[in-house]
Task: structure prediction
Amino acid sequence: MNKKRLIDWPYVIGLLLLPIAVVLVLHGVRAVQEATRYDEAYFTDEYLRRYETPGSVAIDLEQALRHGDSQLMAGLVGTRGGPAPIEPRPSLIYVFLLSVDGDYFQYLYFNADDYNRVVQYVTKVGGRYVASEPDLYFYMDSGRWLGVAGPIATTWWILVTVFTAGVLVYRRMAVSRQEMYEQQSGERQAGAGRK
Result:
């Protein structure tokens, strides 16, 4: 008996594995970026001595952010592409080390003009500390992607499961209706044949 499948299970499994595949691709991108991200010119003995502690980066970050010093900021981030453009904030002051999350130090700065807080991240790379910009590499490397990917993946899995269950129930009901119709048609034909 040829029975039609109610659910295309390989397709459903593929949909369930999609968030995992996306995360693996993003980690691959992070690994490629890690290999090409930093400029060796910012990892000389001078920079290694100057930024041997996270606090020294935090102090220079205050100056770079306060004066909008792109050259100083380039030395702080140490990347090939350089830092994102920064606007001078003359009333920005360094407040304190907010927390340490894994390999990342979070420093809090305060802008007295508009009462905004600015959080900057510092991590150790290649024997020195660097300022981290909040880009894809930072989110993947620091583990902050879990705070976004976890809820999105859970929602995705719930939706796929609910829609798959709905399709399964609908198709089973359709098969039941078809079987009931065929049974009733058979009884009618048998009853007509007796007359």
